[in-house]
């Protein structure tokens, strides 16, 4: 029940403000999730109100984000390595302006209530893990992340940019930039993992996806609300798979001939999208209303609102 009354007030405010875009321009270290599935089940507060630590080495980062005490960790400068750092529950991880993790990913495994914002992560080797990996966890807000690698190697040299698997619930991905990569975002672990992954709930809003090969995202089994994203020059679009129920609204695509398609009976309700002249081929599903209030940017304004705002554009 963390911040229960505050989130009700905020939801009401969102409804009244629904004519204006909900892009966050100011940020504080104590911000809590204000969009999507992360606002449900008591909300996602991360380490809000906890002590603030600034880190600039891999060892300091690894120590600072471990464990379940409420805490806020700010990454300063560039940290280079070849590993994935495990983030504990009730934690907020923030990137200072200009900070970067090179070859260092963040993993949220068997945890709850985590916020990761304004962090730039590049070139995490597949042997280490994903740039961002959220597994078997609940209430996670990923916001204003800059996630990339390159496509100079084969598609398995790097793994995912933002992989959300093993029954994750209450996940919101907003204002992120995902680019220059083969396999962007895997949601739902595998075709055989329905027993765990059917409960998946993910919101993806106001993200910019460009120069990606596939998985933008690949979504299995669960419920996904995907709105106000811009997709440019990716090979594949949104792939709804294995009974997934997606609500896909007011997104904009250029440069793909399959912006929204299914594999093994995935479904989508699609409204207000600009498919860039291509066709949506996903069968119509049953997910017609998200279980929270939200404000849609009109489709014609999405590109101007999202490109340039997504990514590491906050300062802490
Ligand atoms: C932290 O909380 C998570 C989620 O409740 C739990 O799975 C994990 O074991 C806890 N870790 C520690 C170190 O207590």
Automatic annotation (TrEMBL):
Q: Name one GO molecular function term.
A: pectate lyase activity
- Annotated Pectate lyase domain ranges read 48-259
Enumerate the subcellular locations listed in this protein's record, separating them with semicolons. Answer: Secreted
The EC number(s) this enzyme carries: 4.2.2.2
- Position of the signal peptide: 1-19
Task: Name the UniProt key words of this record, in alphabetical order.
Answer: Carbohydrate metabolism, Lyase, Metal-binding, Polysaccharide degradation, Secreted, Signal
Q: Name one GO cellular component term.
A: extracellular region
In terms of Gene3D superfamilies, this protein maps to: Single-stranded right-handed beta-helix, Pectin lyase-like
Query: What SMART domains is this protein classified in?
Result: Amb_all
Q: Does the keyword DNA-binding apply?
A: no
The protein's annotated catalytic reaction(s) are: Eliminative cleavage of (1->4)-alpha-D-galacturonan to give oligosaccharides with 4-deoxy-alpha-D-galact-4-enuronosyl groups at their non-reducing ends
Q: What is its main location?
A: secreted
Q: Does the keyword Transmembrane apply?
A: no
BP GO terms, sorted: polysaccharide catabolic process
Please give the family membership noted in the entry. Belongs to the polysaccharide lyase 1 family.
Q: What is this protein called?
A: pectate lyase
Q: Mind giving the lineage of the organism this protein is from? A: Eukaryota, Fungi, Dikarya, Basidiomycota, Agaricomycotina
